[in-house]
User: Fold these one by one.
Assistant:
Number 1:
Amino acid sequence: MENQPIPTPSQGDVGALVRDAQSLLRAAAAVTGEKADSLRARGLGLLDTALARMQQARGYAAARGRDMAASADAYVQDKPWRTVLAAAALGLALGLLLRRR
């Protein structure tokens, strides 16, 4: 998965879908008959869409995490001493910052 621009849903997008579905389902509870069935179907459709978008985002995040872990592993394998020095420097800096408190 090499830097492919995959549109991921924002939390606001999914939240809006869920809120719309909730309002449709509440409206369906207040009415009866064919209109209620139509509102319920639309609400359930919106919830299904929100679920699908969240699953897509979860899959994208997992793939990006695997890619980043593989890149980090390759870097450490290629430059082990640079990695050790960077980790030591970071540990020293954090130790000094924490010691000041």
Note: The two ends are 43 Å apart (CA to CA).
Number 2:
Amino acid sequence: MQHSYQEKREERRRRRQRNQLAAYLTLAVVIGLAAAGVVLGVRYLTRPGEDRSDEEGRNQVEEIFATEQTITMPEETAEPVPEMTEEEKLDEIVAAGIAVMPLEDKVAGLFLVEPEAITGVSAAIRAGESTQEALARYAVGGLVYFTKNMRSKEQLTEMISNTKRYSKYPLFFAVDEEGGKVNRVAASGLAQKAESAEAIGQTAEPQNAYQAGLTIGAYLSELGFNLDFAPVADLANVEGSVMDGRAYGSEAAAVAPFVAAMMNGLREQGVTACLKHFPGIGSTGADTHEGLSVTQRTAEEFRAEEFTVFRTGIDAGADMIMVGHLAAPALTGDNTPCSLSPAVVTDLLRKELGFEGVIITDAMNMGAVSAYYESGEAAILALKAGCDMILMPEDFERAYSAVLQAVADQTISEERINDSLQRIYRIKYADRLEPEEPEEPEETAGGAE
């Protein structure tokens, strides 16, 4: 019985195979006939000399085409995807980095402070465990150093190098190195002091400002600095101006080329320049370090003079501009420091002058701000005005906590923080752009000259 059962199974299997084979053969014959019919029909209709009005022939061809279930269309050629530019690639890198940052690190990244503000030491001269722990807690966007932090070339280089190694994000290592009386590094004996802007301006040769930028940029870069709060773009245009000696002159047309030239010199050494102090603080003799400073300069005068200098710097590719604490009622309508005024930061600098780089405040521990505003309040006002970075708040921890809370309660949106970080990291990651290949010079009939 078992043997008989297996024979029946085998017989059914062979029958199924025969049926499948017959079906395949039938299908092949049908397809072949259909194809032959198409060919014959087309030949019949297109044969020269024949009567193409033969109704029967047309009907046969139409029936053949009617039996086709699908018509294969030619495949569409996919449009080529345009290759991303280097700038677009940089934006992608920056956006991806910001997307994974915790909110605490995003907010801290808007602050540029002295190392003492996060370590608690009286004068930071080395970077060890306390620096490492401080950066882990407060991922600030950068550190600014003064003469008190500088003992020797080896000490300063090692401190900056270790700090860079301890940080999980790229840092700005900043310094005030203008030339003349504002020289933190030169004042410590680690470099030769450069000429003042006033002295360079008197030469009437912008090339001298460029050379000063190259010289200053070279020793800053060697020490590890990547940001210089220079050049001064102010005009010393009143008697006893607070910018006497620090400005290249009093006339915009004469000063503008010097500002652009020094900025380019610094850039060629890998140091980011920061033009200061928008909208121009040289039209008063009062020092914002000490307290309120008010100018009576009109909006028309600012646009005709000071803005000309800053616009030249912007056109030359400025990456960062510092906004001063001068009160300019003609621009703001009251005595609000310009650094805290949306009318100055956003409406004028960002929109009217079209500046797309990083806007940083002047030091927030200066009397023009600290005497009238609490640290947290001032930081929030500066960000709401349109600034991207807060420089040296009087109390960093209070300022940081206040901004963090402002984001939590939606006084400031996280998108607003991201926008500032996008601009900040475009500078920090700029070296990731591949340099453009120089074009080959065209040969002329007469050969090279």
Note: Confidence is low (pLDDT under 50) at residues 1-5, 48-71, 437-449.
Number 3:
Amino acid sequence: MKAHNIMEEIVKNHLDDIMANRPQLCKCSKCIEEIMSRVLNNLPARYVTTDSGAMYTLIEQVKVERSSEILKELMKVIEGLQKYPVHQ
């Protein structure tokens, strides 16, 4: 089985929640990709090589363990991009 960084999925889920509650944020693919890459570069990777059922359990565990760290990093990156957007 191929290795997968479960932090990508967790960060994406948190980002989706933030975007849903903040209509003023740009939701273009360029901004989303920029947020994702910056946040993931600042968080530790969590690679797994397991089936989908076990992966779901690991994702939920990491969500609980790292939720505040992930949200803090997301907000820092989003605020920075609002001050200095990647596009006009």
Note: Residues 4-83 form one domain.
Number 4:
Amino acid sequence: MNRTEFIVATAIILFVAFCLGWFASWLINRFTRVSKAEVGELDRMAQALHEAEETRDQAITYLQQREAEITNQLSQTEAELRAAMDGLRDARQEAEEMRTYIERNQNAG
């Protein structure tokens, strides 16, 4: 093979490699291209996701406020229950003292 044949063969090989590369690039671009409808759909989905996140954040805030209110009510109710139980205990003790006093006076009299 002389020099001219070598240059022509190399040029043909390089041209075929270029054509295969270009075809592969075109093929990949053709399959990965995003249409305008798909972009619109992605925008719509992104907007819906954003709205859903805002709704979730609002729900979390509402639940935290509600939990704080209920915890406060529970604390107040427990305090009232303790006060009522203390009052009942005192009333029972006083009633027992009165019974004892009455029995002593009946036995003495």
Note: The CA atoms of residues 100 and 107 lie 11 Å apart.
